[in-house]
Amino acid sequence: MEFAELIKTPRVDGVVLHRPFMPTVEGTLCLTGHHLILSSRQDNTEELWLLHANIDSTEKRFVGSLGTIIVKCKDLRVIQLDIPGMEECLNIASSIEALSTLDSVSLMYPFFYRPLFEVIEDGWQLFVPEEAFKDLESMTDEWRLSEVNKDFSVCPSYPSLLTVPKDIDDESLCKAASFRHGGRFPVLSYYHKKNGMVMMRAAQPLTGTNGRRCKEDEKLINATLCAGKRGYIIDTRTIAVAQQAKARGGGFEQEANYPQWRRIHKAIERSNVLQESLIKLVEACNDQSHSMDRWLSKLEASNWQSNVKEILTTACLAAQCIDREGASVLVHGTEGTDSTLQVTSLAQIILDPACRTIRGFEALIEREWLQAGHPFHQRCAQSAYSNGKPRSEAPVFLLFLDCVWQILRQFPCSFQFNENFLIMLFEHAYASQFSTFLGNSVAERVKLLLSQKTVSLWSWVNRPQELERFLNPLYEPNNLVIWPSVAPQSLLLWEGVFLRWNRSTKCLDEAYQEMAHIIEYNKELQNKVNSLRRQLAQLETEDSPLQTP
């Protein structure tokens, strides 16, 4: 297919660009195979270069012969194009819609992009599993790199190399994989150098209604426990949802079969609920009514901040089990590719100071998101404005970045990177000239030959001239574990993402003033709640009581 076939009108003069709180620009609009470009050809005026892949939806309006196209983007921008001539407007709108919804991954911009900078460091070779395993080998000899998934046949969403207990052979891993959803058997996520405890991740066990069990799976999990130690299985579903999964062949670990493990259920919303939450949040942020009560009501109804709180709470729990309880942890939900990765990666940010550096955070994203099989292509296909029926879209990665921003805001000196680094990752996850976030798994990226045909995001980010924009001037290395507060008054709306294109937020200031009064009022209540928690903790009769952060 030729892109020219989809471009009915490649150029229109006299187009006026409107952007919120910015001066209007009149110039020439051009359509290419991957970009919408508007240039006024004036030296002091910024040009608009918009990737078609960044367009979430379009709307058309007509007043006489003047047409208007409202372009809503995945990075939450909304722009307006006034186009003279009804036919030209219809042609441009039709072309934009066709070019922004291409089905073939190989037609996307990363396959056509040629960098103007010299690639000093190949990002595709920076975070290979072998290098990460060398660091692990320097701390312990109880693990090995397995090639059981070298052809991606055991688990299509796992990488070819996996870190597993040294005493578990590949045959046992295959049997354990057949007992886990999508073949995602338990693998090492994090080793805590301080006490040797580990965090593993997996998908739900396929116990079904008959209570099926797998000796190899039990042996694999128990191989991570030290003598006389117990472990914690953190299931990111409610007990009701986990019970319902049994009817569909899924389920959870039966305590009788895993006697050394205590199961804890923490409710993190499913992907379809998260997508609806994002849509409501963005609608609230774009509300032009300037009514504080209305804005606060919409913000609360979106449940976005509640989702942030639940994810952070679960991550804190996992970190608490490892660091304070001295216990190993297994994290899973249903598929092990969404909420599981949110929890394991956030727990590492809390526990491991290396993950708070730029290079360490990049390694974390590679290890816990890209190599771990988060389906970026599916989850980021649409954002908050799409008119299409949601399929597998969900802001799972954006929620993770929001949680990181909350911790960064609470510990501003403990992170080497700044907020701009997180915003940049959000933007490139949804639309980019780089291919790092293309595909749903390592297997798909290998099949697409991305490392040979395209440029990695890390090759660009790690150039000294780019890194300067992302460095935190307040950074002082902090080797301690950091414990973020998850109290409602400690979690704020991420303005840098959700309000950056809409800075006329008079109601926001008023709302925060109102919230400040509410926070003061709640402090006394919070003190009473904490007192009750301490009393309950004293009455707790479990062997190793856990207090939810």
Characterise the protein shown here.
This is Myotubularin-related protein 9. It is found in: Cell projection, Ruffle membrane; Cytoplasm, Perinuclear region; Endoplasmic reticulum. InterPro entries: Myotubularin, Myotubularin-like_Pase_dom, PH-GRAM_MTMR6-9, PH-like_dom_sf, Prot-tyrosine_phosphatase-like. Residues 508-542 form a coiled coil. Keywords: Acetylation, Cell membrane, Cell projection, Coiled coil, Cytoplasm, Endoplasmic reticulum, Membrane. The chain is an alpha+beta fold and 549 residues long. It has 19 helices and 14 strands. It folds into 2 domains: 4-102, Pleckstrin-homology domain (PH domain)/Phosphotyrosine-binding domain (PTB) (PH-domain like, Roll); 129-384 and 393-493, no CATH class. It has helices at 86-99, 129-137, 170-177, 215-222, 239-246, 271-285, 292-302, 304-323, 339-351, 358-370, 376-379, 396-410, 419-430, 442-447, 450-453, 457-461, 464-470, 495-498, 506-539, and strands spanning 11-18, 25-31, 35-39, 48-51, 55-63, 66-73, 78-84, 143-146, 162-165, 187-191, 198-201, 231-235, 261-265, 328-332. The longest helix is centred in the C-terminal third of the chain and has 34 residues, at 506-539. The relative contact order is 0.11. Residues 505-513 and 543-549 have low confidence and may be disordered. The chain has a 7-stranded antiparallel beta sheet, with helices on one face.
